[in-house]
Prior knowledge:
The protein is an all-alpha fold. Helices cover 68% and strands 0% of the residues. Helix 1 (3-25) runs antiparallel to helix 2 (39-62).
Amino acid sequence: MYPEVEQYLAAVKAAEDKYEEAAKQAPRHDYDMSEDDCARCAFLNPIRAARDVATEAAMGQLAQASDPLVRWIAENCQSYPSAARTVLEALPASMAELNDLAADEGWCGTWEDFVRKAEYAGVLPSADAEVSA
Ligand SMILES: [Zn+2]
């Protein structure tokens, strides 16, 4: 894994852990009250907002990574966060390895769309390039 990706995943995990921890300690949600009056929402909403800010900042950092495909994913794949994460974790990889990964994950149309756009952007690895993680 690229060090920038490791840093990104660690930052996202830290932000998520913080939120999960707070969620455990938060009072119960009161369904009879509006969100403004609910103690749980009042407690958790700012922590959730902080998590989202931290996650976005980590993504912004990732968009400065040295690998062009990592940068491209950071900038273009926010709508598929879990698939993007899976690809990021697999890099560096050859195109053949990435296609195998996509097949294993059962990505079809979304993967083809990703490949077409990334190819157009000129950020895809070659088909069988020697890579070492
Ligand atoms: Zn609530």
